[in-house]
Here is the input.
Amino acid sequence: MSKFTRTPILTLSIVAACVLALLGLFLLRSEESSAAPHKGKYGAIEFVVSDDTNGKRAMISYSRNSKDDLVAYASTNQDLLYELVGQGAKVITGQIVFVRPLDPEEFTQIVSDYDVSVESYVLRGISNSGERITIFGAPSDAELIPSATWQQSENILKAKNEQTRIAGVITVEGQIKVANAQRLFRDERVFVVDVSTEFVRRQLQVEFEGNTPVRVDNLFPLYWFLEDYGIAKSQ
Amino acid sequence: MIIKNWMREQKIIRYSILFASIILVLGVYDTAHAWQATFTPFYHTQSFCGTVDAGGQEDAEVLYEGGARHVYAEGAYLRWTANGIGCLQYAMYQLQPAAAGAIVFHAFGKNSTNCNNLRWINGWAWTNLPGASISNEDNGCQLRFYIMSPNGLTANSTYYAQLAFNDNAYPTAKTRGEVTESTYFVQLTVPVIPIYRDDNAKLCIRKNVAALPTGGLC
Here is the structure.
């Protein structure tokens, strides 16, 4: 066989191989972006992204094996806040985690002092046996802590155990100006301003070019672990 | 003497008002929390090692408050055996990727698995589950109470979780539906899809009351 007949076959084979390789790469990439969860890590914070019916959904986690782990988590959040400042963020959604429950007056004052637009909060109830009760609340149009909610919560808790009392607000989530978030880090009542969900959400929006709705969850209740390690005191 | 009598009368009046107030508050409280329907004991549709143990109870009631129609629901007497707790602990601390147990409430249309106009009221959820956190799914048709610290569970102790739904159709209509309670095992990397779902109870939401289903139907 002459080289003149071999060349077109060779050329065709190379082209076919390239097409197949490109097709394989495309399929691999589309599989990676649509099905297989992918992971990310920033300091002490890890997250996994997976598909949701409405777009993408990320789950944040962090190590909770020691007091140092929780301190590292707070420190990473502080770093992420600086990153957000560097990215030009002006207002962020954050979760303020306190080191003790704040009574309604103190809570109202801190919200006012730092101009937090409150979306939701968590209250700690304590029974006489020391059992911890978690109450999830949100403001009404008229009241930061609706008196009906407070009363209803007290009644329901007392129906379970007459000695149960509501100790106060342990975390609050809302919109905060970054400058106020930085100030909050220096407030001795605050353990951390958790900006992990905001940071990851922004990163993923960049990654998916803003075309895909992204929901980021952090289901680990930090205050609970702070109580476990004696960093936060509710009793 | 006159002043002394007057002071005594005032004292009696003050105590009477206080006493009457307490009775009134207790009366209102009693009215507000007399569950209209109680489903017990739980059933199991897909029992798994970390599911809630038998003995659980679902309660519900329909209340009209401040011009709104609310449905309150509760999972009470939730219990886990030592083996069940061991399973939840393994899933959270040993399994890769980790998974969490959850008590999940769904508000469905009547005899349907579709969402209807009953939506969780943000700010109405209570629980004594250890390391509790919540997530709102399906735009408020579903609320999950996650057990994120299963080391805090004690075998055969009783736990509860409570929430309230708002009827978004009210006052135009009074939504009929059902509120179910299930135990989930959710992989924390793919939180949307439960690994296991064990249905445990269902109560019907009628016009003005919550009621037990008949033959499993509302």
Summary: Chain B has two helices and eleven strands. The CA atoms of residues 68 and 118 of chain B lie 12 Å apart.
